[in-house]
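# step 3/5: fold
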Amino acid sequence: MDGGKKIWVPHPHDGFKLGRILDIGVDTITVEPFDAPGSAISAPYNRVFPAEEYDNKDVEDNCALMYLNEATLLNNIKVRYTKNLIYSYVANILIAVNPYFEVPELYSSQTIKKYVGKSLGTVPPHVFAIADKAYRDMKALKTSQSIIVSGESGAGKTESTKYILKYLTESWGSHAGPIEERIVESNPLMEAFGNAKTVRNNNSSRFGKFVEIHFNQKHIVDGGFVSHYLLEKSRICVQGPDERNYHIFYRMCAGAPEEMRKHLRLLPPDQFHYLNRGCTQYFCTTATDRQLNQNRKSKEYLQKGSLHDPQLDDVTDFKVTDHAMSQMGMNENEKMAIYTVVAGVLHLGNIAFEENTEDMKGGCKVHASSEQSLAAASLLLGTDKDEMRDALTSRVMQAVRGGVKGTVIKVPLKIYEAQSARDALAKTIYGKLFDYIVNRVNQALPFKSSASYIGVLDIAGFEYFQVNSFEQFCINYCNEKLQQFFNERILKEEQLLYNKEGLNVKRIDYIDNSDCIELIENKSYGIFDILDEENKLPRPTPDHFTAEVHDKNKNHYRLSVPRKSKLKSHRDVRDDEGFLIRHFAGAVCYHTVQFLEKNNDALHASLEIVVQESKNSLIRQVFDDPTSKKMASGKLTFISVGNKFRTQLKTLMDKLKSTGTNFVRCIKPNSKMVDHLFEGAQILSQLQCAGMHSVLDLMQQGYPSRTQFADLYNMYKRYLPAELARLDPRLFCKALFKALGLNENDFKFGLTKVFFRPGKFAEFDQIMKSDPENLAILIKKVKRWLICSRWRKAQWCALSVIKLKNKILYRRAMLIKIQKTVKMWVCVRKYRPRFKGIQKIKTLRSQLTMMGQIVSQLKKDKSSSEKQVQAVAQSIEKVIQQIKTTRVTRQEIDKAYSGLVANINQTLNDLQKKLKQQKNKEEEERLRKIQEEMERERKKKEEEERKRREEEEQRKLRMEMEARKKKEEEERKRREEEEQRKLRMEMEARRKKEEEERKRQEEADRKAALELQAQLEKEAAANAERQQQLEQERLDRELALRLAEEDQSQVEELQRSESQKSIGAAAAEDDKKYDLAKWKYAELRDTINTSCDVDLLEACREEFHRRLKVYHAWKSKNKKRNVQEKQLNNVKNAQTDERAPKAVMENSQNAPPIPPRTNVPNSEEWAQRYFRIPFVRPSDQHRDEAQRKKGWWLAHFDGKWISRQMELHPDKQPVLLLAGVDDMQMCELHLDETGLTRKRGAEILEHEFNADWRKNGGDSYLNSNRTRVTSKYLRKILGIDK
């Protein structure tokens, strides 16, 4: 169908597949994939997209695609990925695909130099280009900038952040000074303590960070500052089966020197309780694996070998971490103190407990096998062994009623309570140690005077697992806030600005996630507040907390119970064990069993006293925090992790809102973390979560770059001469753009700003460069343009002709000059003497020509003379050949030349004598022939005079016959015109009668139409809400599918309920007699051709045209991007799919709804009516009236539907269309929707239509397609039907 055009259809694994249309329905399109002939895929219209003509061609900016949609975006990313081109743009947003291997020379110093000062679009897409743009924006706009690096775990956010920092420090640092080195070295240090291996990423950042690079007044790197958020402390105590703890533990076990290892009592990872429940293998290369002693390897390592990752090696990375500490200014004692605390945490985890049978209160004691671990932990952490034992197995409480000197009670702990206390101490120590390391990094990056900064945000992406706890809840809450910021900064604020500036850009709808954020952070009923309130209760329980969340948000759309999850494994979770939140990226089921524990960071008094009295100076320093001390009353200060994170996030969002923003969207190409594997469905889901489809819709008609008229004017003001300083800023900008030669369709003037189309950043940045020399050049261009524009207004025509002529002459002269110069320059030195000699001898050839002319005139002795000339020519060629092939001196050449000249002169004199004698004889013969010719001329004139008299007589006879024939023709035409006038009068009378009848019925139909319109609007609003819910359900299911692929779980099939049917499908079921919704397009057409049932025939025709309307609406929505631009640019021969004149199509949009078909026979339903109206093609409609070429659009309606259609244009071939043959190109509207019956003078007679039809070859076209015609009237004329 439709010429077999290529389209994209959704696919569960590839994202989209390329195919061709097989069938069109009211709600779905059926497509046959090219890679699976014979199969079919049905999909809704809003999930099917047209494909590019060349689907293997890639572009750097996705806004340059012919069709801007999800499918072409995904395909362009895929094509570039296969070519190892991992970067591309969507306007000014960078998409970065993780290649999972080292791309050669992609991040080298030479590459960095290529991007310094370069505008977007002038160099290939790269994370360096975004960093350079942020720097130039900071410098030009004098505003701090932020780069938000987002993406899910394993997408490459951390690596992108490192390369951004590397670019900024290498390009704008003091030639890699200590500050720049420390900024770069801070990354491996924080990665060692804050990154870990997960099932989705070998180097996953388990904390968020916002790195600020501060610049001084000269825009040179002056220092930095790191803010961190939400370290995943639960990972310290427990990990998943295929996951690891933080890298530092394994690096110390594998890479620490033997002396340090013995001092810290380090063991293989499987002998530490905090490490042996996860993966205990090291990351190693072949070389480092040989260096490892057997006593450092775990049993799992010995069985399976090492883990492999191009970025990780635990043995060498320990040295990298140690070097990074040194770069941060830490001495050996400080580094050893940090290693001691880390080792102390490991030994602390090995302390086990057992029931104390001697304790009547049911307490516990340290297991005998753990005494060595207790001693090692106490020694390394600087605490007393017995005090540590007591603090772990009991806690001290002080009676409130006893006042300041209240009774102190020692309460023994159960085994599980002691384990929780041990884990809480380990998490607190490690968390404060991480805070200390970040603080030391900030101390090593001081800045004296910060004029502005560039901040790089790297925070965990949207997370979803089979079991999601408090960490995933906080991370996803952060991503909701970042998505809201993205929506507001890119979509909402952008569209508000367009409206404010009067750009008339179509509104783009996007999913607003503010209700989800309110569910999490609102007062009283927000989940964070409910969690804090639960923590304050005397006996808080997860069940009560979960019940309160469900109770206070009963009817909230974003909140649901776990059994509503699409993943069947979550159906077993009870309502009081978790809740389900529908995030912007999909639904996530949270298990609340550890929410209360993880939200409370407080240690009980005994443990806090022990660590505060530690002999380890580092432990005392990190715990010397006034906010962590007890209150005077004796109650513990409640520390809410959720509230702390909300406060940090609010500060971060305030920073982002106060800065200019740049976005880097990192994409994970596959779940297996291998190179050159592209999983389209997974990537498509990430692009949707990143909001790229909404950005594409906006960029299709938006203007991503802009600047104030006044700002642009002020930049140039001091360079303006007096005559230009008086210009209005808006006029100056116009002159500037004209001087630069920018296309008027690439920018648009608002009320206060100038806006640029996508992909025009190079021109924009060229203007915004604040280089004085460049500005002065631009000012000269502006001044010259103003002068030239006034001159062009006065003498444009003459100047154009002169310029054209001069350009042609100049180019022609320059072309000859270039050719001559190049050729001569090559040969002049080597061949000059011989070339001059040959050139001099070749001049003698002109004498040969003269001799040849003389010989050709001779009639006697011609052969002998020719032999003489040939002998001379041979002698010349012989000398030339001798010069070319042998080395000849200048004297020899001159001697040969003199001999040739003497020979030629002698021969020429002999020939001239012979010719002179011959001419004397010929002159006598010529005089005799002249006399004979004069006699013949006299006789010829007499014969011509006789013929002229005969022709005059014949002309008079013809004129008499022509006058008689003309008189008869005029009489015949007069009679025909009289007959046509009577027929037109009858037709006009019928039209007036119909008009009067329609007016009488309009009042009766008006109320019904208003009621129907209100009902349709109500249904449309309900349908929009249903579509949003369907989109959310689709995202939920895709997220569940991705999770199911990892865990081999099952996902509920997406069922389409009756309430989810579109309005078009509901309308198709109005006719209860025939259910045509499941009929194929071809079946409908065949029924129209063959059926004799009038009701079935009419029902099929209505269904047929209803599907055509839906299909053409889909095509119009997905029109080529350049078609509209060409129409606006007055480009000739712009290809469009307009099937009827613009007035007809616009009338259909404003026409009242067509009333339902009745079963009462109506003769008008089968009447044949013909129409003709003027028609201007879209390529000509914006021309001047004088240049506009009008044609005619003719239509034949068989009843209420079109049967034949013609387009007649001057200087073009006629367009003939037949129903059943060219349905896709014909008008699909009902006759009443076209408004043709109400248009005066539009209706014509049958013979007038048929005359034009036959004249333009319609009959032969009809006969050649007689078997495919669907019009009953035409089939009767052709004799097919009776």
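# step 4/5: annotate
The radius of gyration is 45 Å.
# step 5/5: archive (pending)
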